[in-house]
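A quick word before the example. In earlier lectures we treated sequence and structure as two separate objects. From today on, think of them as two lines of the same record. Here is YegS/Rv2252/BmrU family lipid kinase written that way.
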Amino acid sequence: MTIEHATIVASPYARHGAGLRVAHEAADLLKAQNVEVDIIVGEDMADAADLAGKAARGDTDVLAIAGGDGTIRLAVEASIGSGKPLAVIPAGSGNDFARNLGIPLGTAEAVQVILDGHRRPVDLGRVSFPDGRSALFGTVAATGFDAAVTARAIDMRWPRGQARYTIAALLELIALRSRHYQVRVDDDTVEADLVFAAIGNTTSYGGGMKITPKASVSDGLLDVTLAKNPPRLARPTLARVFPKVFTGRHVDHALVQTMRGAEVELYCDPPALVSVDGDLVGELPAVFEAVPHAIEVFTPARQAPTPS
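And the structure line, produced from the sequence above:
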């Protein structure tokens, strides 16, 4: 594919302003290769998403997102169905979507992936709520404890990057609570007191926390990780298990159950928050479904290992 024009969606909020800087760096690199470039910066993220949708339905050859997982999600929502390929120029705190596709985190290397022109189809997930609202996601949908961690991390000004989610998780452990969940994954059901239920299209969230370590963006399925509440000493037990999430070994613990399917339905009492790609979008009950081969994304021709 010959790229003559690229539109870059820049998030001024990603990594405390890094998104806009990265967008301009990427634009300079593309222009040096005779690619015409427009940079989109909305008044807010909703405005940026609207502009991205219009650009995707215009004459641009590629819609590139300079931001993190949340920016990617909004751009995907706005451009889905346009048929335009997407590119990712990582500039967020976690960058888990890029990590799972083997896209380099360095700006120059990510731009080279675009110039090389290799694309692949990628699955998405969709969450739908009883009131008719829905949201697409590229990485992980979190409910319960991990959604509460996301809510706390969003409000934290320090530290930056992965450490912010780690500290938020440790703080949430102090006020740990479980909920009674009813879980359906295709035709299989589980009813239990859970600390959280995570639904993964990718292996990780929060900058490499491998919550659904066997998930794949190309299998047409969602992976589910359920963390059961131990009868006693919940906080010390989870505090010991939690660090294993960075290697994916937490799924070997007796308190953790994994499932896989095309459709996941969750109810819980009391209701739990739902976050997707690091954005809070509602609360349970909800239905989560895989959307196979929903978009095409520029990726390395030979995918690099996912950074740990």
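Notice the following. The helical segments are 18-31, 45-56, 69-79, 96-100, 107-116, 145-155, 162-174, 234-241. We will return to this example when we discuss secondary structure assignment.
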